[in-house]
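INFO batch 0412 | record 1 of 1 | parsing
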Amino acid sequence: FLLNRRAVIQIRDRPMIPAATTEADMCSRRVFCLVALAASGILFLTCSSDDKATVPEPPKLVSVQGTIVPPDSFGMDPGSLEVLCGDRSVVAGGDGTFAIGVWDDSPAALIAVDSAGNPVLMSIVGDPAVSPHPVVDARSTALALVYLNPMVCHCSQSETGTALAAIEGLASFAAFADSVEERLALRLPASR
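INFO prediction complete | emitting C-alpha cells
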C-alpha cells in the first residue's frame, strides 16, 4: 500500500503537460490549439445544420373521391349511406359518390354505414396518391375484412398496396368475395 501511495504522490506532483522548453514548442502548441478549435467549430456548424434537414413533414389530410357500388339486389339507395374515415364523415351523393379526407402518411379504412350506424361496406385506401378514387363495394369489403386481420393490418403505407395485391391474388379470395357479395345481397333494407 505504501508503494502505491508514493506512486500516486509522485504522479500528482508531476505536471500533466510538460512545460514548453523552447519557443518553437510553444508556437506549435498554439497552432495545434487553433487547428483543434477551428475543427470543432466546423463540426459543430455542420452537425447543427443536419438536424434541421431531418425534421419530417407533418401528415396532411388529402381528399379522395370515391364511389359506393352496392350489390344489385341490395335494396338500399347508395345516397342514403354515410362514409366514415377516422373522425370524419360525409353523406354520399344520390349516385353513390363521395369525397372524404384521409391522411397521406398511413393506410385508411373507409366504412359506409346505414342510417342506423350499422357498417354496410368497406374499403382500404393504401396511398391516396396511388388510389385517389376508391370504390366501396362487396369486393373491397371482402378485401378490407382480410386486410384488417391483425397479422396483415400492421403494414406500412408503402407495403399496403403489395399486401392488398397479394390478398387479391390468393386462390381462395375470389370465393370469399363472392360469399361476401351474396351475404350483402340477402341483407334486409334498413326500413324493416
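INFO post-check: Residues 138 and 183 are 9 Å apart (CA to CA).
INFO record closed
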